[in-house]
Amino acid sequence: xxxxxxxxxxDGKGITRIETVPDQQKLDRHKNLEYYKDILYQCxxxxxxxxxxxxxxxxxxxxxxxxxxxxxxxxxxxxxLSWAVTSNRLDWTKNLVNIFYQCSVCLACTQQCQIxxxxxxxxxxxxxxxEKAVQKGLGPMPEQKxxxxxxxxxxxxxxxxxxxxxxxxxxxxxxxxxxxxxYFVGCTTSYREQNIAINxxxxxxxxxxxFKLLQDEHCCGSPVYMTGQTEEAKQIAKANIDIFKxxxxxxxxxxxxxxxxxxxxxxxxxxxxxxxxxxxHLPEFILEKINNNEVKFNNNLNMKITYHDPCHIGRHMGxxxxxxxxxxxxxxxxxxxxxxxxxxxxxxGSGGGVRSAFKELSSFAANERIEEAxxxxxxxxxxxxxxxxxxxxxxxxxxxxxxxxLSELINKxxxx
Amino acid sequence: xxxxxxxxxxxxIVGDKYVSEEPEIQFLYHYDFITAEPEGKCDIAIMPETAExxxxxxxxxxxxxxxxxxxxxxxxxxxIATPRKGGIVVDLRxxxxxLEVNEDDMYAVVEGGITWADFVGYLNKHHPGFRTGVxxxxxxxxxxxxxxxxxxxxxxxxxxxxxxFTNGLEVVLxxxxxxxxGSCSLTDYWYGRQPLPDISGLFIGWEGTTGIVTKAAIxxxxxxxxxxxxxxxxxxxxxxxxxxLKLSKVGLGIVDLALLNxxxxxxxxxxxxxxxxxDPISLGLPDFIGLITTEAYTEEQHKAQCDAxxxxxxxxxxxxxxxxxxxxxxxxxxxxxMGHIFPATGGQTPIQFWGCWNFARGGGGEWIGCYNTTRNIxxxxxxxxxxxxxxxxSPQYYCRIMFGGHYCVTRTNVNFNKNDPEDISKTRxxxxxxxxxxxxxxxxxxxxxxxxxxxxxKDKTLPETRNLIERIKRFLDPxxxxxxxxxxxxx
Lengths: 416, 491
Known about the structure:
By secondary structure, chain A is of the alpha/beta class. Chain A has helices at 33-36, 63-68, 75-86, 94-101, 108-112, 116-135, 142-154, 187-191, 194-206, 222-225, 230-246, 257-270, 282-291, 321-329, 354-357, 359-374, 386-395, 406-414, and strands at 7-10, 13-18, 181-184, 251-254, 278-281, 303-307, 333-335, 380-383, 402-405. In chain A, a hairpin with a 2-residue loop joins strand 1 and strand 2 (13-18). Chain B is built from 15 helices and 19 strands. Classes of the chains: A alpha/beta, B alpha+beta. The interface between A and B is large, with 51 and 63 residues.
């Protein structure tokens, strides 16, 4: 059966485009709940959002729904609950807010819906509901509030000291103080997955790329923004942009999917803070170098791996192929896809504040993904997000499968 | 006994996580969120995982005389799962497994809460040589409710309704006993309802008022290698229907035979109702689109079948172009979900046919859908069309000829804005007028009837038959807890 390509990816945007519907309401993204309230009731709660639409196997896609089970936890339920509160059919309550926060906003659900207004914009009102919850004093969840307060004090959500942020940095990493290219490390990498930072910096050195770290790097604001605390996140963004400008930065490389999304899209589009800085995620940057024959892989890794698409670069930003192209170029790497891949990737369960506030859901999602990875018979799951990596490490039991960041494999293959 | 006490008792059956009286959880079970029917009230929502848990829930219902309403997706165009008298809505979707597939006798045993996506996905993955008939219903809707409510599937010409595809049932009675109906009641095989007293009939067509079906055996069909879907267009129903009726009597490997008007086709194309002519006939646009699906085991057989079908169509001055040609004739931006239906265009069923409830971009849709004699197809269309046009609504008409042409389903859909009380009110009026008008056609009986229609059928039914139906209902459900306020057996 020849599968018609019904869905195209829009470059630079993860939200895909349904091209076959003649009449689509063109709306703006990043608006508040009031803006979207007149389309929320188009949902018929039909359940299409629960499974991979017309994919082989019609696999389940929604961690929040598969864990919570009741209708309310799937997108259809959330659409109509959003309609209910905006049309005074239901009150804003703690229970309602809990339902909306028990979700990583991975957008696998919106991917499946064939009603264009829901397909493109439901992600916007899922975030708008969180924003409204915060405005009403009902959100975020206590755990998320706690780490957000820590971000304000120590510029990271991990309750770590700011002064320890660059503890991973060793003297053999060469920086160029006058470089206009910065490597934005991110909080998870700085404090939890320092190997990613070390590997990324070593890769840049191996490729003779002039770069520097920011003299004073702060949290990008993603964990604050994703939990509906928009105003606080905007202040973080403003401060960061000032830092970038003070240091003369024109280009940033990220190794964290969340940071990438924040800097590239949320700052200019949601916060309307244009910074004019080119943002590249590591695989994009490396692929550019590969295509220019500037990368020499010196080692054969001889490894069967499967690739996990992080939501914040995948569905949110449309980056599916660059990591795969990089992997295909690494000698000895055999890439086996999981059934739920690319736009249908199953979320690891760590984003959207879920990992801190809904630990059971978080573990459920992670374990589901780990089992799926194991079924490919791959030796390792590879991703390019420290949050996904940290999540897999925390949930893989009995050494069932290994997990790596893409930077680790690239560096291993490059190193002499 | 308060709601909370009952929730606690139910929590001991399914675990606290799977029972709730929270308003946010209840809200989504108050009604279907698609039709113009009034809302009901869910007091408690519960999600069992096994038939034994369902039994215990039903026993609680009997103990406290609380209504029990079985639910899968809750979406049906008669709003028959809406809890009219409050009570406990039993959402069966944790019971969503395929338990067995017998490729020799060609049936699958599924749990009561399985959805089309689950079922088709399972067969595609594990039994790719077989297929099930599928209805034009979204992937998240229930298979077993479609069996029990006479859903029409895309193997309708060879298998009839979803009920006729059903080989046997496992049911929790309103009194809590667990029974099986069919060959499965005394053997390990679920091959059929024969040769035993057909007690499956006590649960089919009863709108969930006589028990909760926890398992069903459904006929599956071999996936034959050759398939062609024809989509003939012509000017009027009067031009196309005689051709379809002729095709219904010739065999030729035809597994599905349906026809629609332009309004229905345009909703399949995902147009906004505002963009299209409400009355295409007045503009000289074609208003008949047929769907003829034929399958065969060999290429030679298939070619002969297709040639014969084309010849018959030509006798009626209609050229039956194939679905891929017809669909590809439209620019990509105008295909909507038409490309999602046919293998030749890369699609498969189930499809998310949101034009059914969202053609008016208002999230609301409801139909008068009837089983009928094939003699009424054209008359039904015109009666319903005239009423829709009178109110300025685009008529969306669809008919499926079933089981070798022995009967058909005729349906006219009306779309509306479910956020607009005036539009809802207008739609109710239209539906009532259509129903009253088509009742003049002898042989027209609504399936999945909402409550306001049921009384009409009760009044029309032979008194002794009606009496028997009510007695059966009372016998099975002495406390009248099972989906009260719905169904023909309801007092």
